[in-house]
User: What shape does this take?
Amino acid sequence: MTHRRTARVVGILFITATVAFSVSVVLLGPVLSAPDYLTLVSANRLKVAAGILLELINHIAVVGIAVVSYPILKQYSDRLAVGYVAARSIESVLFAIGTMHLVALVNVSHTFVIAGSSPPSYFQTLGGILLSGHDWDNAGILFTAFSLGALILNYLLYRTKLVPRLLSGWGLIAAILILAARVMMICGIEPASYVFIMMDAPIMLQEMVFAIWLIVKGFNEDVLVQGEAHVL
Assistant: This one.
């Protein structure tokens, strides 16, 4: 695969991952956040199934980004290239665990509805555990791995100038912000929701700009011509 084609594929995978994740949130959010979510999950099985499918597409795209970009990144740092693949693979595995919680919740919801008007209370308990596992994994743990991967990628891009430093520098700052937000969450610090949105938004926007840049411009050809110039 040529460098130009690699850049396009990576850009497309970035967009695929972001769009799939965003649409899954739109589909699943109203169902999972409702007080009667156990009933709604069963009543909206097609919508939930579509959300699960989109989450799976995101998992595949995330790993694909790291695998496809690895041959280029390893020319400049073997350790960071492997670290990026590892971080994104861990992110995908953590995301998959959250998705499996959701798959189990669908089965619990279906059984809850079949049980009738007075189902045993353990359905709510089990459903609450599965929902919390899905939400905590998606909102907190996997984004920690995501932010570490973003730090590795943008640091390497910044050092090598494979893309404009304004773009990779933006990615570095945005990755630090999203990592700080997840550390706060894990430590039990809960500022207003808009604060988390403001801390998350820069990396989402940066990844879309980065993806479009790769599709339209590709990696810096002058840097690629230099070849095996390890920076770390």
